[in-house]
Design a protein that fits this description.
CATH architecture: Up-down Bundle
Structural class: mainly alpha
Helix content: 55-70%
Shape: globular
Number of domains: 1
CATH topology: Fumarate Reductase Cytochrome B subunit
């Protein structure tokens, strides 16, 4: 997802909107899969496991509980990033280019004026998205440097050491759920990329 976001930014900067479209489709598929995985995936990925209320956030800040996966404060950042990414992708799908040549696949569903507004908001939301990414990276670096927790390594290999045993172990989802999620995400992305039209 990080690589696709960087690619989307770079292709927009150099005005290669054909490649920008492909990186956007990849992000759409990854986002669909992440939402699916947040509902039926492994326990640490499920939204109902890591999205907590104010009491859990305060308890975490006091250091009373060890959390497996996202902590309650980090969960807010994850949710904000996913919502901003969903908004960014949606705006791109409906965006209309100035000359109308490189418009989003769903731009035919809105007026030219609405499509141009989506394109402008697509630029604006990305700036907000960058600030949120910066805040997220700063929080991760805080955990690595100050709290001596290697969150970056855990993002790549999925393993993490805890100073004390966590409240509950990780429950992994089956390979079947993984495959179903990949197929669903790919199919929905293809359908949207076709402009919601079946030939």
């Amino acid at each position: 997802m990080v690589a696709a976001i960087a690619t989307s930014w770079w292709t927009a900067e150099i005005n290669r909107l054909d490649y920008h479209r492909y990186s956007g489709y990849l992000l759409l598929g990854l986002l669909i899969f992440r939402v699916y995985w947040g509902l039926v995936g492994s326990s640490t990925a499920r939204f109902n496991q890591f999205i907590k209320g104010p009491r859990a956030i305060v308890s975490y800040l006091r250091g009373n509980v060890v959390h497996v996966g996202h902590n309650p404060l980090g969960a807010l950042s994850v949710v904000a990033l996913l919502l901003l990414l969903a908004l960014q992708i949606t705006l791109g799908l409906f965006a209309v280019d100035v000359d109308g040549l490189e418009s989003g696949p769903l731009s035919h569903l809105v007026s030219f004026e609405a499509g141009r507004a989506c394109a402008q908001w697509h630029d604006t939301v990305f700036d907000v998205f960058l600030w949120m990414i910066g805040l997220h990276v700063a929080a991760v670096l805080f955990h690595v440097i100050y709290k001596k927790q290697n969150l970056i390594g855990a993002m790549f290999h999925g393993w993490r050491e805890y100073p004390q045993p966590p409240e509950s172990p990780v429950a992994f989802a089956s390979a079947t759920r993984l495959i179903v999620g990949m197929v669903v995400a790919a199919a929905l992305t293809w359908f949207i990329a076709q402009g919601l039209e079946l030939y």
